[in-house]
Specification:
The complex is a heterodimer of chains A (244) and B (259). Chain A is an alpha/beta fold and 244 residues long. Chain A is built from seven helices and nine strands, in the order E-E-E-H-E-E-H-H-H-E-H-E-H-E-E-H. Helices cover 36% and strands 21% of the residues of chain A. Chain B contains eleven helices and no strands. In chain B, helix 6 runs antiparallel to helix 8 and helix 9 runs antiparallel to helix 10. Classes of the chains: A alpha/beta (244), B mainly alpha (259). Chain B: Pfam families: BPD_transp_1.
Chain lengths: 244, 259
């Protein structure tokens, strides 16, 4: 689905933030990237979406190494960036308008999605009338509506309180089976990363380290109390500690 | 439409009270003979003059001025929006036009108006030219600045959806710029009345500015004030009209400002 090879990138006149890092994501996988603030997680996403160009190395999406990657993946930025003057429904329709698809024909299908996302009752509301969790779900649905198979989610639950976050986790785990998407997910929450992912990449100062999560699916949020989960978490914390 | 009197009173009550007080003091000062009426006519004299000249003012001079104001405003609005948007899309155009715009605002209107009279004669176009010169600046600048400020994060998001420049302009930059543009348009509307009046002062055969100039030559201060009263009323009506349009357009976009 996505493969990155020997990627190097530096901001102007600065030490490179990535030195020949490689990673790959297979179809249907949920992969998380964990790293300290400033380790360049969001920059990596901007490189993948095509907002930035790598200095060296290759980024291949679906096996293609195209120059122009813009419009090839679904990207959900850290802030929800819902347009305040559009209703929830119109916000979700934005990607279809951009790709000039017929929005009228898609509306029944989108209504169904809105229901699944718990947004059916608020489709005519404006973003500032929604709770944080709802805004995040609307932004996520907008990302899905891009119709792309690979979704890049940049700390989508980072700004939510822990209770709302917990709800979002169980909601997302329940939805994952029917979603049929590939997700690359940025977070700095270890528990969240283990709970949701198939694999985790630790983005360090110099390197990228891969950790497999061997918990079976479908999962529920209950598994965070299981010994397997706790062992996994301890191991991850040790790895991060060694890194520094 | 139901008017909420309580709210109206809270919003404008204080202004109204002070205005009534000022007019009363004014009336009292003049009727007491503290100021001669040809220097400062009393409000009641102005009102009488307005009634007396109502046919001339409302049927001849006001329509003439209104035509100049509306034509000038229409051309300024169209030209200003196009120029502002053009400058947004083309850096070269911006580099060329911006200095000229600033220079155009440094020219004293009184000094350039004789040239307009030479070019356009005493026709309506000399007045419209002054009106455009004075009112296009706020429209161009607010359009250009408003479009420029449209958030980079939103732009990036649309780019990742594969949007082209036109789509970003239409879906993000125009809606975000609208409040700023409308402020500029409101200012321009008021300037248009000023521009038309200056144009008429310098050479016209009809219009409220022309009327007030002629009356001031005759030392009929009350008639001058009557014309000024109508001009100011015209400015206020235009301003309110655009405020109303603004409210309709921004019904939901205004959230943008609050949020």
């Amino acid at each position: 689905m996505l493969s990155i090879e020997k990627l190097t990138y530096a901001f102007e006149n600065a030490r490179p933030i990535f030195q020949k890092i490689s990673m790959d994501v297979k179809v249907g996988e949920f992969v998380s990237i964990i790293g300290a603030s400033g380790s360049g997680k969001s920059t990596l996403f901007q490189l993948i979406t095509g907002l930035l160009e790598p200095d060296q190395g290759e980024i291949r999406i679906n096996g293609e190494n195209t120059e122009n990657r813009l419009g090839k993946v679904g990207y959900m930025p850290q802030k929800d960036l819902l347009l305040p003057w559009r209703t929830v429904l119109d916000n979700v329709l934005l990607p279809l308008e951009v790709s000039k698809e017929n929005r009228q024909r898609k509306i029944p299908q989108i209504r169904e999605w809105l229901g699944r996302f718990g947004l059916a009752e608020v489709e005519k509301s404006y973003p500032d009338e929604l709770s944080g969790g709802m805004r995040q779900r609307a932004a996520f649905l907008r990302t899905i509506m891009t119709g792309k198979d690979l979704l890049l989610l940049d700390e989508p639950f980072g700004a939510l309180d822990s209770l709302t976050k917990r709800n979002m986790h169980s909601w997302l785990l329940g939805l994952w089976g029917e979603l049929q998407k590939t997700v690359l997910f940025i977070t700095h929450d270890l528990e969240e990363a283990i709970l949701l992912s198939d694999r985790i990449y630790l983005l360090g100062r110099e390197s990228l380290q891969e950790v497999k999560v061997s918990l079976s699916r479908p999962r529920s949020t209950e598994i965070i109390y299981q010994s397997e989960f706790i062992t996994m978490r301890q191991e991850l914390e040790r790895l991060i500690h060694d890194e520094n | 439409m139901k008017i909420n009197w309580k709210k109206w009173l809270r919003d404008y009550g204080l202004f109204l009270l002070v205005a009534i007080m000022l007019v009363s003091v004014w009336e009292w000062v003049v009727t007491k003979g503290l100021v001669p009426p040809f220097i400062l006519p009393s409000p009641s004299a102005i009102w009488r003059s307005l009634i007396e000249n109502r046919q001339l003012l409302l049927q001849e001079h006001l329509p003439a001025t209104l035509l100049e104001v509306l034509s000038g405003f229409g051309i300024s609005l169209t030209g200003g929006l196009l120029l502002g948007a053009g400058m947004h899309f083309s850096r070269a155009l911006e580099k060329i036009v911006y200095p000229f715009l600033v220079i155009s605002q440094t020219i004293p209107l009184i000094a350039i108006s004789p040239i307009f009279i030479m070019w356009f004669g005493y026709s309506i176009w000399s007045k419209i030219a002054v009106t455009i010169l004075i009112s296009i600046f706020p429209i161009v600048v607010s359009t250009y600045d408003g479009l420029k400020s449209g958030g980079k994060e939103y732009r990036d998001l649309l780019l990742t959806m594969g949007a082209n420049r036109w789509a970003i302009f239409k879906k993000i930059q125009v809606p975000m710029a609208l409040p700023v543009i409308l402020s500029g348009v409101k200012m321009a509307a008021v300037y248009c009345v000023v521009g038309a009046t200056i144009g008429e002062w310098l050479g016209a055969s009809v219009g409220l500015g022309y009327f007030s100039r002629r009356m001031s030559g005759n030392l009929q201060a009350d008639a001058v004030f009557a014309a000024i009263f109508l001009l100011s009323l015209l400015g206020i009506v235009l301003f309110l009209l655009i405020s109303f349009i603004e409210k309709q357009l921004l019904k939901n976009k205004i959230r943008n400002l609050r949020g």
